[in-house]
Fold this sequence. Notes:
Layout: H1 3-18, H2 22-57, H3 59-69, E1 71-76, E2 83-84, E3 90-102, H4 104-125, H5 130-135, H6 139-150, H7 154-161, E4 168-171, H8 176-185, E5 190-199, H9 207-210, E6 212-213, E7 219-221, H10 222-226, H11 228-231, E8 236-242, E9 248-256, E10 263-266, H12 270-287, E11 291-297, E12 304-310, H13 323-326, H14 329-332, E13 334-335, H15 342-351, E14 360-362, E15 367-370, E16 373-376, E17 383-385, H16 386-391, H17 395-405, H18 407-416, H19 443-450, E18 457-458, H20 459-470, E19 474-476, E20 481-485, E21 491-494, E22 499-502, H21 506-519, E23 537-546, E24 553-566, E25 573-580, H22 589-607, E26 617-620, E27 625-627, E28 640-641, E29 644-646, H23 655-665, E30 670-672, E31 676-681, E32 687-689, E33 695-699
Parallel strand pairs: 2-10, 26-30, 30-33
Antiparallel strand pairs: 1-8, 2-3, 3-4, 3-5, 6-7, 8-9, 10-20, 11-12, 11-25, 13-18, 14-17, 15-16, 19-22, 20-21, 23-24, 24-25, 26-27, 28-29, 29-32, 31-33
Helix pairs in contact: 6-7, 6-8, 12-22, 15-17, 15-18, 15-21, 17-19
Amino acid sequence: xxxxxRKHSLSDKASVRKTPSSKHEAHGVRVRILLVGVCFVLxxxxxxxxxxxxxxxxxxxxxxxxxxxxxxKITLTPQRGAIFDRNGEALAVSLxxxxxxxxxxxxxxxxxxxxxxxxxxxxxxxxTSPESEQIVHSIESVATALSKGLDLNYSVVLAKLTKxxxxxxxxxxxxxxxxxxxKAQALPGVHFIPEHERWYPNGRVAGQIVGFSGxxxxxxxxxxxxxxxxxxxxxxxxxxxxxxxxxxxxxxRQVIKGQLGKDVTLTIDKQLQYIVEKELAAAVRxxxxxxxxxxILDPFSGQVLAMASSPDYDPNAFGSFTAxxxxxxxxxxxxxxxxxxxxxxLAAALDSNVIKVDDVIDCGRGSYRIGGxxxxxxxELGRLNISDVLKYSSNIGCAKIAQKLGKETxxxxxxxxxxxxxxxxxxxxxxxxxxxxxxRWFEIDLAAISFGQGLSVTSLQLAAAASAIVNGGELYRPxxxxxxxxxxxxxxxxxxxxxxxxxxxxxxAHELMQMMVTVxxxxxxxxRARVAGFDVGGKTGTAQKVDPVTRTxxxxxxVSSFIGFAPAEAPKMVILVVLDEPxxxxxxxxxxxxxxxxxxxDQALRYLHVPATQRKSMAIDTDMPxxxxxxxxxxVTVAVDPGTEVMPDCKGLSSRQxxxxxxxxxxxxxxxxxxxxxxxxxxxxxxxxxxxTVWVKLQPPN
Length: 702
């Protein structure tokens, strides 16, 4: 074979190898078709899976999301729980009131429809009907009716009616008269929805305790604020449909109601609260005081039975009063307690065995130099036993006792009584008071603190500390809320008395109570605190206030106070009365605050049906009732004929001796002055009927 033929042969073989066969070509097509089919199948499976996931597996999720996107919720005021006093009397309740909202779009559509119907009627009848003109409104006429009916500004209402919206609040919680009048007019595009309005049926009574809630249903002050989470409940909603552009659709009348709030029952007694507020207001007015406060505690539990401040306010119109009028001064304000603080000096000194009850303190001639300063008593008192130091409120006697006690021990007892620390009452804004560390006390500071100057306390602190003396030496935490109940009246939470600590021994507390009773003797500083038919005890206080400008004690600004308990045999209550900056000539606590205690205690004991412990009551020339002590002097006898009494010889007797003698005789007597008896009527030995006028005149020994 030639070379040329061999090349052609090789070229033919190569061309045969490069050309695919029909079999291979068909196989390739099938593979490609299979791959495309698999891709379609996978895409279909993925699509079906996604559809299943969206339409079946997570359907509820997307349905709820769609519902939220197509619904507009308007928050409505829910029904707050009620607040009651300890006897179930309502102090705060929620009432149903109509709120007014407008739908401007609906209004325009209705006006246009009415106009078209009127035009059609006119064309048909070819006449004008006056009646038809009267029933067709305009935006201006609707704005006029709404502004007059709801006492709103016309231009503001008109501006709202011309907006491109389907829901605008016009006025929340209208009065019954307003809603009735508007409903009678049947104004187009105007709708009503019931909401709840807070109402305080007793007005000012307990207003500073209860507090108030705002338009958005949040408690803003008082118990309403402290227990807002309990009282508020869950909000209600007005539900409206809306389109994809978030525009409202329909009238939106569907209401979803939330859970009702829980009810709160206080330890307060509404009747006692009314008595306290009435007497405090009269005292502040008569003494021309800047302000005043009163608190009544149950000494054996810490329950607050009444708590009042003056000036006060009406929570139904809280916006018309200042923050100072709304403030609960018993809890929030601090002041220098003055001589009422002597109780805790004697408690500390007796409990630490620094002094004994029968010890005698030389109070000198009414002045005493200590730490480079001179302190004074109101008069020359001479030598006094411990009880008389309290009875006559000797500053000098207390200063000398404080020197024996020492500042470290005194400070320790004061903190045990709860001073310079919050009582932790369930009320916001509580003050702490001020008591410096003993390392910063100078000699004069120890003396000043012994009679209640150079420190500050709250009224609640002082009342709680005094209760620890009255109940036998135990300090309890004061509290205001007794229990919490749900809407079906099941108790969900209940507070019980919480003992903080024992402060002094029971015997020491009993001795102090007896001393406090002597303070209300005829010749004691608290004689005007006496209550007819009862033994009571207490302590007066008159403290100078610090002038904020000069930072020294003011010459004319005082705080007059009285802390006491009643009755003495089985105390039911501890009462503290505080009058701030009285503007009368005599500002002593025994003259201003003690009579307020007497009037409150007298009415409170009668309201609580506490039986009297004395047979007769005696009146003094101050028109204040005094008690007659039952025990008689065994060394004195009085001859008694049927229907008559013999006037004993009272001359030279002290007031206490004379009262015991007169209790034995059964005579009702008028007492004039203080000190010892210098004159009497009738004369000794004369017969006198039990209903005759009998009086004695007392003068100080000097």
